[in-house]
Amino acid sequence: MSAPQTVLGLVSRIAGWPQRVEAWSSAGQIPVVVSYCASVAHLQARLRADRGSTVALLDGDLSFVDRDLLTGISADGGVPVVVEGTRRHPEWSQLGATVVLPADFGRQQLLRAVGLAAPETQAHRNADRAPLVAVTGPGGTGASVTAIALAQGLAAARRRVLLADCCLHAEQAMLHNAHGSQPCLADVVELHAHRTPARGQVRQLAVGIVERGYYLLPGLPRARHWSRVRSGSLQPALRSLRTAFDAVVADVDPDVEGEAEGGSIEVEERNALARTVLGEADAVLVVGQPTLKGVYALVRALIELLEFGVRPQRLLPVINQAGTSQAARAELSRAVRHLLDGVAGGNTVGPVLFAPRVALEERLRERDAVQTTWASLLADATQTVLHRTGDAADQPELARVAAGSLGHWSDPHDDAT
Question: What pTM does this model have?
């Protein structure tokens, strides 16, 4: 007789089904043994130690059983199976549960859940999803106002365009004079922890900027509120935004350092917004200034994004407040190209886009539309990147191979000696 299969359990005190399962197991009626965990941390430690397709039976009455926990279990190699309780939830499967069992499940239902459940191993991209355009850059380069101009430019040809503030130090509310108690990005993410809202509900969370033709989703009230943006709910929230709107422009920080780069999981979690948005974006505008330090900082940001894994075809370098001298612009382009040539993928980054000097202070203060020529310039260049990346979507992506990872071959002459 084969050894019984061990599954992990996380239950509340009021749950009745554990006693039923233990009775079946003790009587030899099912080849399943449930090992109950004392906490979420205990469950996660067991899953990471096992690294197999371990089934986790989760009591649906536990308040902390949400999208983040379910996706975290899947990420650790587990198979989340939710047992419904008094807290009935119509969308457990949408939140990440592989199987949902009724509270009065029978032996055969449990055996099918344990035997047939399998974790989802491959994410897929919805072709119908609206484009996500990220605008980033070192501090003080004008990335936030560039995002405003781009959103206005895209809104000229699209019915619903959203400008989402995804920076830790969010300033779009200030730039739009949109202070108050309106919902922010963290509220949208938290909403997706327990359900997937309808498109109409998502649209109602944004503020209409009538003068410029787009919608605004303000960012975090304070940078320390980054812990409200849990990574398991962040990606579904982005998907909902891209479903509810015709285009999403994200004002985002360029810091993508994670555990692999710096050895700190806390830093990776703090940078979850930037890492998720820049990793998902169809086009990334990286903004710099036409100065010695500005060009250096621009290229440094581009290199970090390339190393993070952003495809070079998706990157669009933008130099803000550029003069009209063609000779000066040519020199800046050569400098950027020269600094990128030695970087993997750097020679395929698109040409530099030069944004003209524009007067913005009064327009921002009055929340008027920005200069149309500037907005159109950014929108047209972005549309070109989107077309280019769309055409290359099916092309295989080259991956850097670590030195020594492919082994070696021996020379016959060496063997002879």
Answer: 0.69
